[in-house]
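User: I'm curious whether this sequence folds into something compact or stays loose and floppy. Could you predict its structure so I can see for myself?
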Amino acid sequence: MKTGKKIRYVIISLILLCAGAYLGIAFYYMEGFSFGTWINGVYCTGKNVEEVNAELLSLTAEPGLEVIYPICCGEEKPEGERGSSHFVLDERMAEQDYTKGLRELLQNQRPLMWVKNLFLQKGGCELEPAVILTEEGKEQFKKEFLADERVQAELDREACIRLLKDGEEGFLLYDGKKRRLDVEKALTECLEAVEKGKESIVLSSACYYDEEISPEEKGQEALYRELKDFIDFEIVYDMGAEQVRFDQKALADLLMLEDAGEENAPLIRERDGRESVPVRGEDGSFCWDQEKVEAAIGKLAAAYDTYGRPREFMMTGGGSITLEKGNYGTELDKKAEVKWLSEALAKRCSETHTPAYRREAYARGENDIGDTYIEINMTKQKLWFYQAGEVEIETPIVTGNMMRRRATPEGVYFVYGKQKNRILRGPGYASHVNYWMPVKGGVGIHDALWRDEFGGEIYKKEGSHGCINLPLEAAEKLYGMIEIGVPVVMYYEEEDK
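Assistant: Here's the prediction. I'll summarize afterward.
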């Protein structure tokens, strides 16, 4: 045999051998998955549909469904604020099966194309099981759905329209007729989602409906709009460091309401459950309740009046002290403010108002001492003058003689005058001072040229007749910086009381 023929025989033999091997492998994969097949992380090469299905099911958790409610209590919620409920479908309620998906995958592989499949299957694939609900499972799911707290809340929501005197805006229109949950439609969508293998569902708008509104309820809607328009303004009381706002909620509290009689439909439900109607004047507009206006001003005075009330004061060096005496403070002119507020309400215009005072402190607000004041610690025999929160003057002093019962009075007072070159007179004495700053009757702050020393315990035996004695330089500086009205805080620490 010639060499050429031998080579041809060898080549043909090799081709037939390879073809046989290829067909043999293809035949092997006729009933099983091709070489290199991975499904859901499971190696499936050579395994049939039933074998793979059983293995995948052993690794599959019980199915569940998250139901997302886009509407809560009739109000549509943004995506991040939607409520949801999770339902687990155990083996009694549902069966899972990968068979359909596995057969489709096996059919698409084509055994004769097993080499191509080798490259196509790289990385594997993911399959979701079909979920088959039993009739018993459908009934059980319905029970659990109806028992869910979110569904119950929707079902329990009163199907009416009611005007409430509450809420941040003063009046709130409760509407229980819009966007109510249609349980049957919601159930249908949930069951369909389960059977399609979905793990979550957002209920569609078709699951919500509006109930018809009665003529009486339309009247309540109209009254709500009328009331909201009537109190659509704001009065701001400028209390200095703070502002007190009579917003729509506060204004609603000032309206005159009366109990709804039998002849009147109950149009407003108040916080205490009482059903009321707004009182109207001869011109048909709503009326303000004068007693409520007076009470509102009384409440304002109770919050901001400081005259005659105990004060908590933070001492220089740390610690606090309660001071109950003094002539300093703020006192609202309640009569004038009741009149002003009544007139402002009648005009119904937004306005910022500085109240009238019977007594007005140097600073206004809850802390009317503010950050500019004189602090006198009679125990430490020190005076500090704070201006805009910074210590401008710190000096030793001499206060009233303790042994002779001429102690400087405690309390919060104020500088009510300034005078240079004043003669201070009393029983048995007449003293010239260069700088005189009275704070309480005949008690004041002044220089004392007759003293060589200040501070320490001089006050106990050699103190003043009650005044606060300063070195000349400190008195001069204080006189130049101080204004009439500046508060003066005077106190003894516990050891001296």
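Summary: Residues 19-28 have pLDDT under 50 and may be disordered. The longest helix spans residues 3-28.
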